[in-house]
Design brief:
100 residues, alpha/beta, two-stranded parallel ribbon, 30% helix, 16% strand
């Protein structure tokens, strides 16, 4: 193996499974996914607004838990820049009940 390319590693320390002389590329799919969804949302946009501008759907990006907020913010920022519209963000907070 001369080089390793990984997509969306759960934990960046997984690079340590490979010898130091082998470069490990950690690719993040967020910007590509944001561009894809922007194209889909643009196709969904309706032309009912009085000024003739396409009406981009209202979108909220939701992080599955607190540990994913940074990734969701990055995705939202790219999507918002592409859309030129506000994209809201939310996250879920998990709480585990103690065993009784």
């Amino acid at each position: 193996v001369d080089r390793v390319m990984c997509m969306d590693l759960h934990n960046d320390t997984l690079r340590g499974f490979f010898p130091p002389k082998i470069p490990v590329e950690h690719l993040m799919p967020g910007p590509v996914a944001a561009a894809y969804f922007h194209e889909e949302f643009t196709a969904m946009a309706n032309n009912d607004s009085p000024n003739g501008k396409l009406s981009y759907p209202k979108v909220t990006v939701v992080a599955a838990h607190e540990g994913q907020v940074a990734r969701a913010v990055h995705f939202r920022n790219v999507l918002q820049k592409l859309a030129g519209e506000e994209v809201k963000i939310a996250f879920l907070s998990k709480q585990r009940q103690e065993a009784r």
